[in-house]
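Q: I'm building a small set of examples for a reading group on sequence design. Run inverse folding on the following structure and report the sequence directly after it, with nothing in between.
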């Protein structure tokens, strides 16, 4: 078996401090770790705010790695006003690349975990706000009839205008299919289903394959194979990836939690595990390097 390297890989899903949740490091730390590991870049995600400022300062922390590139995004939770076209346009206009639909404030997430911001009782991922902030999420991107809401349509139109990336985050399977259908009709080129194997959305392999045939990327996340959140064993992950195929599969870490390894090591371990289970180094490099480049347009 070959030892897998993350050289040139772009991790499209890393969480950094500062944040209400406990994180393993700030964006400068993560940038240095990833750049020193030889990676090509990373997308910095936050459940709470646009990461434009985080990325700006994180990029300044790696002046000796001119080819390493950080990318910003915005997740449509309460911190940016939920399904808020204005927040999306401001972020993309400042260079952000990725827009995530609601994560822990989505209706689907709340239905599964029993509340906004909850992740099954992890002490490091508990909001614990003192003021009982309102609104508290429960956002949906479709209406009672399964149609994409006007605000969501406007957001997709804005993403098309900026040639950005729509990531589905923690909305339901039905919502994913609805926004993909609308996005494709509007000429949206870059769509990614966020951790389709995770408890939310858990869309199933058949749906993964169906969406991938429409040119949608499936983002398979290391965190779901690690001991604290073993929702998809490595064998099952490998089978799902093979079903989708190398053209539309992406591997990322979804790391930054204090109980996970550093992002480059989490991604490397995930990639090595998939290789040990039978995926070729070429397949893995495509998922870790080439496909993230295609998704991001770099």
């Amino acid at each position: 078996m070959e030892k897998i390297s993350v050289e040139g890989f772009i991790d499209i899903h890393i969480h950094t401090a500062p944040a209400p949740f406990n994180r393993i490091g700030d964006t400068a730390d993560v940038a240095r770790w990833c750049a020193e590991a030889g990676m090509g870049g990373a997308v910095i995600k936050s459940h709470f705010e646009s990461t434009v400022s985080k990325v700006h300062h994180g990029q300044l922390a790696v002046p000796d790695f001119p080819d390493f590139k950080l990318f910003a995004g915005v997740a449509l939770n309460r911190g940016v006003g939920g399904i808020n076209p204005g927040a999306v346009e401001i972020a993309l206009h400042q260079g952000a690349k990725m827009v995530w639909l609601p994560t822990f404030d989505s209706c689907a997430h709340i239905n599964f975990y029993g509340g906004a911001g909850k992740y099954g009782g992890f002490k490091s991922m508990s909001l614990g706000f003192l003021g009982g902030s309102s609104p508290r999420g429960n956002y949906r991107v479709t209406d009672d009839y399964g149609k994409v809401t006007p605000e969501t349509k406007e957001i997709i139109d804005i993403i098309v205008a900026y040639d950005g990336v729509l990531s589905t985050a923690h909305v339901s399977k039905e919502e994913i299919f609805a926004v993909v259908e609308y996005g494709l009709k509007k000429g949206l080129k870059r769509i990614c289903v966020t951790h389709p194997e995770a408890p939310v959305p858990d869309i199933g392999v058949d749906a993964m394959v169906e969406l991938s045939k429409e040119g949608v990327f499936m983002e398979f996340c290391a965190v779901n194979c690690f001991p604290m959140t073993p929702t998809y064993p490595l064998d099952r992950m490998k089978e799902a990836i093979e079903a989708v195929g190398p053209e539309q599969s992406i591997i990322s870490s979804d790391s930054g939690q204090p109980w996970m390894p550093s992002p480059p090591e989490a991604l490397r371990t995930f990639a090595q595990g998939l290789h040990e289970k039978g995926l070729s180094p070429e397949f893995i490099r495509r998922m870790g390097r080439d496909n993230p480049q295609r998704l991001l347009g770099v």
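The chain has one domain: 10-126+134-296.
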